[in-house]
Specification:
Length: about 140
């Protein structure tokens, strides 16, 4: 994905206008630290953490445009087109089909939900996905 963004200024994904609650990497680290600090407290529990809001890949492209200072266009593909590209690139058919199925579910709206999983795991709200500005 990164080479396409860098070379073609495109974000190409097979998810249409599907939304998802993208998780900030700082939240992933905080969740891992919470479990590592008290593993017994989390034994047998399942968490489904999401970010604080639903976003689309068009939103991600807009954020990349802002962060990189270059226009990044979101170009949606059909999941089957993406599967065919993966197979041509050498990905085994079963893996490509599984990935296409997941992306198809995102496109159909199956991931358009938010949870309090992060807050219940760490005791505080998830981070808004904002890069640091470098100023104090």
């Amino acid at each position: 994905m990164a080479p396409t963004i860098k070379q073609k200024h495109e974000l190409v994904m097979p998810v249409g206008d599907g939304q998802f609650g993208i998780v900030d990497s700082r939240d992933v680290s905080a969740a891992a630290a919470a479990v590592s600090a008290s593993p017994a407290c989390h034994e047998g529990r399942t968490y489904l953490p999401t970010g604080p809001e639903l976003v689309t890949y068009a939103d991600v492209a807009a954020e990349l445009t802002r962060a990189l200072g270059k226009e990044i266009e979101y170009r949606p593909l059909k999941p089957d087109q993406h599967r065919e590209q993966m197979v041509r690139a050498g990905v085994p058919e079963a893996v490509a089909a599984s990935n296409a199925q997941v992306f198809g579910l995102i496109a159909e709206g199956d991931t358009a939900w938010l949870s309090d999983g992060f807050a219940s795991l760490t005791g505080h709200a998830s981070a808004a996905c904002e890069p640091s500005s470098g100023s104090t």
